[in-house]
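Hello Y.,

Per our agreement to keep a running log of every chain we model this quarter, I'm adding this entry. I've kept the format consistent with earlier entries: sequence first, then predicted structure.
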Amino acid sequence: MRTTLKIFAALAACALGAAHAQDIPAKAEGVTRIGIVQPKVSMAGADSAQSAEAVRNILAGYLQGPTIEVALLGSRLPSQYLIEARQADCDFVLATTLTHRSGSEANTGRSVLGALSNYTPYVPGADYAKTALATAVLQSAQDFAANVRARDDMQLDVKLDSVGGRQPLLEKSTKRKARSDGEDLLTPLAEGAAEAVGAAIAAP
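Predicted structure for the entry above:
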């Protein structure tokens, strides 16, 4: 668990560099910009905006690098987030769905990230919000792991579109099953998704 928290602390720091689409500067030459739609996060039939934003910042932390920039898109509908992505000068749009399923009836109805009642969204340029987000993303690692029980499974569905393209560049679904209580399922899922996205972007 301690290793996982260190990983998420680093990801939180990286994610602070991601800007919302309406606030990002002009794209530098040679840089690829990916617009990330707020993920759909489901647990026992319910979605959580708080957990979705935490998952998005984790993905942003993995994707962001010297040649890749990340923009956090506000639109939810495909027709709208593609327009927003064009306005933000994005090359690609990443849409994801994270589903956490209970492995036993006794665990049905657990709420993922229910502890994040004081979650504060990132506001570019606001130091207090950056600190709050770093704390929230770090807490999310603890909450995700704390809500995992043996035999639970977590699935991450990824869809990557090229802005202006007609067909998805990448569609990938990955699932992991917990072997023990408190197992970190999200980190390898997010890392694998980022690697797949990077490979799809780099492909000729």
